[in-house]
Specification:
The protein is α+β, with helices and mostly antiparallel strands. The chain folds into 4 domains: about 110 residues, Immunoglobulin-like (Sandwich), CATH 2.60.40; about 160 residues; about 70 residues, no CATH class; about 45 residues, no CATH class. The protein contains 3 helices and 22 strands. The strands form 7 sheets. Strands 10, 11, 12, 13, 14, 15 and 16 form a 7-stranded mixed β-sheet that branches. Strands 1-7-3-4 form a 4-stranded antiparallel β-sheet, with no helix packed on it. It is elongated and about 200 Å long. The chain starts with 11 loop residues before the first strand and ends with a strand.
Length: about 475
């Protein structure tokens, strides 16, 4: 077994105070008072260091068994405290002279070992934090990232389709506007042609009516007929132009409706894209580990390496409130959580044999055990742990009395079966023991009464006497 007092533990302890508590044990060796860090863990999990000298004092430096941290002001019940070794790598003693003492050499080696153990603790704390992020948090983030990527691809596809529909609607609207302009131009030209044709017709008809020869009349009639035909064609063109304008108006209305729908779809896509972008941005927020083991987004409390080092201690304080019912134990010192426990020839039992009992625990340091024996005896035993120190087993004893009832009667019960015509049985003699002593006394403090009893085998009668001033005197006799 190693003689070195420096053990390979994490040199870190947690305590839950009771009302008025001032002392907290240091269970590992330390060399200087300022090699210890002591403070309070708040409800939100943040650690607040107390000041040596102002808030607490330390004793037991260089003691292999450790020492004690003493609060200068009593603790409030239920306060969480953390004690941690924080030695610095420095020479706290100088090697001088031609000969070095073994104590000084051992102290320097121990300080180096203390520093190494505490550095390994801090490195393991960082690894535990990264392992938690890698094994728990990152897969969840990757899954969310993949889901968002799929949604973004869907949005991109919808956006492309909507943009194409919007472009088609714009082209259709442009074509409709161009067709409308052309139709309006054609209509204007038809109106001009119609006006010209009507003018030519009127002139031709007027000339025909005033013509003097058949030939001239015939020529003017032909001109009037041609003008009428052109007027008819111009009217037809004007009608077709009106129809085209109606169709163009309808086309314009449909194009406007398509553009409005496209704009609404685009607006919805923009809003959804903004929401998704916000969600993606939120994933990059720092992560906070809570006492329940969950991770919360957008809580930037752990942003430094020091904060990461605090995470393992937070995880270490998480203890599920389970009922250990019916668990078998091989050492009753290990039955330290609420529930029903049992063990056969387990260590630290009241005695050898089979015991079963219940544990009522505040935490692993403050608890009570109550067990009953099933093989060696059937007695009840009780013990408790006060801040990790076990009391001895105590046998639970009590006064046991018979319960009298009509079917279970006995002397002194006071039931009706013990009385006879109003007299208690204790007022009568149920046997006569012969001997030299008086028995069956019957006396009265009234003068003239006698005492009747047995002396040997003979019944004797004598006056009632009273002890007065060192002598017997017959009552009622002058």
């Amino acid at each position: 077994m190693s003689e070195n007092a420096i053990t390979q533990d994490n040199r870190e302890k947690f305590y839950t105070s009771v009302a008025g508590q001032t002392e907290f044990p240091v269970t590992f060796k330390f060399q200087q008072d300022d090699d210890l860090e002591f403070g309070i863990i708040a409800e939100d999990g943040l650690f607040g260091a107390l000041v040596l000298g102002a808030d607490f004092s330390v004793s037991g430096a260089e003691n292999d068994a450790g020492g004690t941290v003493t609060l200068l002001a009593p603790a409030i019940a239920g306060t969480q405290y953390r004690l941690r070794g924080k030695a610095t790598l420095e020479l706290n003693k100088k090697l001088t002279g031609a000969r070095y003492s073994p104590e000084t050499t051992n102290s320097l080696f121990e300080r180096s070992l203390i520093w190494i153990v505490e550095q390994v603790r801090d490195v393991n704390a960082i690894n535990l934090a990264f392992d938690h992020f890698t094994g728990v948090t990152l897969p969840v983030f990757y899954s969310i990232r993949d889901q968002i990527s799929e949604q973004l691809q869907t949005i991109i596809g919808l956006e492309a389709s909507t943009l194409a529909a919007k472009n088609d609607a714009v082209s259709a609207k442009d074509s409709a506007v161009s067709a409308k302009t052309n139709a309006e131009t054609a209509n204007s030209q038809a109106q001009v042609a119609k006006f010209g044709s009507e003018t030519a017709r009127d002139i031709a008809q007027s000339s025909a009516s005033s013509a003097t020869s058949k030939a001239a009349e015939s020529a003017y009639s032909a001109i009037a007929a041609e003008a009428s035909r052109q007027v008819s064609e111009a009217a037809q063109d004007a009608s077709e132009g009106a129809r085209d304008r109606a169709e163009i108006a309808a086309t314009n209305a449909e194009a406007d409706a398509i553009l409005t729908a496209a704009d609404r779809i685009q607006t919805g896509l923009d809003r959804q894209a903004a929401a998704e972008s916000a969600a993606v941005a939120e994933l990059h927020q720092p992560i906070e580990a809570t006492a329940s083991g969950r991770t919360l987004i957008n809580q930037p409390n752990y942003t430094t390496m020091r904060d990461l080092l605090e995470l393992p201690s937070i995880f270490a304080r998480i203890s599920p409130a389970t009922q250990d019912t019916g668990r078998e134990v091989d050492d009753w010192d290990n039955a330290n959580s609420n529930g029903i426990w049992m063990g056969d020839d387990a260590a630290n039992a009241p005695k050898a044999g089979w015991f079963i009992g219940e544990v009522q625990s505040h935490n692993k340091l403050w608890l009570t055990q109550r067990v009953w024996g099933f093989s060696s005896d059937h007695k009840e035993y009780l013990r408790f742990s006060a801040n990790g120190t076990w009391s001895g087993w105590m046998v639970v004893t009590g006064d046991y009395h018979k319960v009298w009832h009509p079917d279970n009667d006995g002397h002194g019960s006071g039931l009706d079966a013990d009385t006879l015509d109003g007299f208690h049985a204790s007022q009568f003699a149920r046997d006569i023991r012969l001997g030299s002593q008086w028995t069956l006394p019957k006396s009265s403090d009234q003068p003239g009464y006698v005492v009747v009893g047995f002396a040997g085998t003979q019944m004797q009668v004598r006056p009632l006497q009273r002890w007065i001033d060192g002598g017997w005197y017959t009552v009622g006799v002058a």
